[in-house]
Amino acid sequence: MNKGKTIGTRGSEDGVIVLDEEHTSGARISLEQGCSHAPWAVTCGIYGGFLHTAFASSEAEGRAKYSAMKPDLEDIMAEEDNEARYNKMKRFADVY
User: Which of 19, 38, 51, 83, by CA, is between 20 and 30 Å from 73?
Assistant: First the structure.
């Protein structure tokens, strides 16, 4: 983890990062404010294979999405079967 170094910097959606966590197995989730396409964005990435962004119109909605997405992302990272992992990523993208 970057120990909070990314907080206050620009994220992938050109917003200011207000929350950012990295999973030890190679994933990241970030919440940005003031993005180029929406007031708030939650970006989830699995290094080398998956990137998904969900947009929100308010801080409360953005934080709620962040909180909901985090355990689902952790579940994907815990999946060892490649096909099952792919299906979980697909469902994740469809839900958020």
Answer: 38
